From TrEMBL:
Any GO molecular function: flavin adenine dinucleotide binding
Source species, domain of life: Bacteria
Matching SUPFAM superfamilies: FAD/NAD(P)-binding domain
Pfam families: Pyr_redox_3
Keywords: Oxidoreductase
InterPro entries cross-referenced by the UniProt entry: Auxin_biosynth/cation_transpt, CHP04046_FMN-dependent, FAD/NAD-bd_sf
Protein name stated in the entry: Putative flavoprotein involved in K+ transport
Organism encoding this protein: Paraburkholderia bryophila
């Protein structure tokens, strides 16, 4: 994949420079090409690198294939309600890459971006220096893995890795595996290990969950009909706060199903509350397990109840549905676990990432490193973001919604360019 689209002109000036060669950056390139706007996509690794190098072997989509709607390249397979596996996802992305044929410089890490007094952006990379009239950040928001400092004090014999480095159960040493965190990655990795017969110790976080199927259909299909995926962030009950939410855990594995941590516990998985500390060889956990399981189930049932309301309101003929009832409850909150006697041989940290835009010299970031913007348009003239979670809607960081965001950004870019052309013509006259 390396340098497959390396342009004849590398260093130099462009109307638009895009940082990030994932689905967001390539989507922006698609619309820029349609508009006839010269541009360059700069990618630190290779295009769609994250999908190729940071997904485990059994990875599959958690949303149905019909939601794969990259610009000009919708899903055309024969299983729209299925869930593409890793190799199928990569084939879909390869087709999209060829379809866009973006002007890309790969293996070009951006070191510094600054806007000059004349409004031009200067971009220093490991492959040279560029300038651009407008600048689009499409590098996502998952940059630096979160690993707690207590990890430094664990015995050296324990293999530690972040979720992006996990591949399969066979690659881990014999013994128990501790998974910390139960967002989408943590819950699915814990399931992958559990299905392989590994002893799993799971530190359960506050992530919500949802049903895979309810009342005869995929929950995603119901929510789409309810127009949830079209809801802009400013209309969400949490407003911008929804951007901090952990994704609901569910899976598309084996045709799709719920992930029920209580069922795993009944089958032998050891569930604990939030991991808090390591002292004197003992892992310490907060007494949050029961509350976290109950809260996840409450979200599950609330989503289903909203579907019930939609069905009733519209008189839809659908099979009956019942609220989820727990199949297992913890008898007690286990507060500690001895590292040596537990048999833990590996720990997988699945507690997320923090953004790192330290290379971008622009006064648009809040205290958590997140940019201020309205639908990707920042207060700084000519500076845009795309591909972030809930940039505009639920699908902004996904295959389903990034096209809408990219098109909107490019429309804004076109308007800026026209304004400048008009101003330049007026000055020349």
């Amino acid at each position: 994949m390396s340098n497959r689209n390396h342009p004849a002109r590398a260093e130099g000036h462009y109307s638009v420079l895009v940082v990030g060669g994932g689905q967001a950056g390539l989507s922006v390139s698609y619309f820029l090409k349609q508009a006839g706007i010269d541009h360059l996509v700069v990618e630190k690794n290779t295009v769609t690198h994250t999908w190729r190098e940071q997904r485990w072997d059994a990875f599959c989509l958690v949303t149905p294939n019909w939601q794969c709607a990259l610009p000009g390249y919708p899903y055309r397979g024969d299983d729209p309600h299925g869930f593409m596996k890793k190799d199928e996802i990569l084939a879909y992305l390869d087709g999209f890459i060829a379809h866009v044929d973006a002007p890309v410089v790969e293996r070009a890490e951006v070191k510094r971006v600054k806007r000059r007094d004349d409004g031009v952006y200067t971009v220093a990379t490991t492959q040279g220096e560029f300038t651009a009239d407008q600048f689009v950040v499409a590098s996502g928001g998952y940059h630096t893995p979160i690993v707690p400092r207590l990890a430094e004090r664990l015995p050296a014999r324990i293999v530690q890795m972040q979720s992006s480095a996990y591949r399969n159960p066979q690659a881990l040493p014999d013994g128990a595996v501790m998974v910390v965190g139960t967002g989408q990655s943590g819950a699915q990795i814990a399931e992958d290990l559990h299905l392989a017969g590994r002893k799993v110790v799971l530190a359960v976080g506050e992530a919500p969950r949802c049903a895979r199927f309810y009342r005869g259909r995929d929950v995603v299909d119901w929510l789409s009909d309810m127009q949830y995926y079209d809801m802009p962030v400013e209309q969400h009950p949490l407003r911008e706060g929804v951007r901090d939410n952990t994704n609901h855990y569910v899976t598309g594995r084996d045709g799709g199903r719920d992930i029920d941590l209580r069922k795993f516990a009944a089958e032998g998985m050891a569930l604990y509350g939030r991991l808090d500390d390591l002292r004197n060889g003992q892992l310490h956990f907060a007494p949050t397990l029961a509350a976290n399981l109950d809260a996840a189930d409450d979200v599950y049932n609330r989503i289903n109840a909203s579907i019930d309301g939609f069905i009733a309101k519209h008189g839809i003929d659908a099979p009956a549905g019942d609220p989820y009832e727990p199949v297992w409850r913890p008898l007690e909150e286990r507060a500690t676990l001895d590292v040596e006697t537990s048999g833990i041989a590996a720990i997988i940290w699945c507690i997320g990432f923090t953004p790192d835009f330290s290379w971008l010299d622009a006064p648009v970031f809040n205290g958590r490193g997140y940019p201020a913007h309205t639908r990707g348009i920042t207060p700084i003239d000519g500076l845009y973001f795309v591909g972030l979670p809930w940039l505009h809607t639920w699908g902004s960081g996904r295959f389903s919604g990034v096209a809408r965001d990219a098109e909107y950004i490019v429309q804004t870019i076109r308007e800026k360019l026209r304004e400048r052309e008009t101003l330049s013509a007026a000055v020349a006259a």
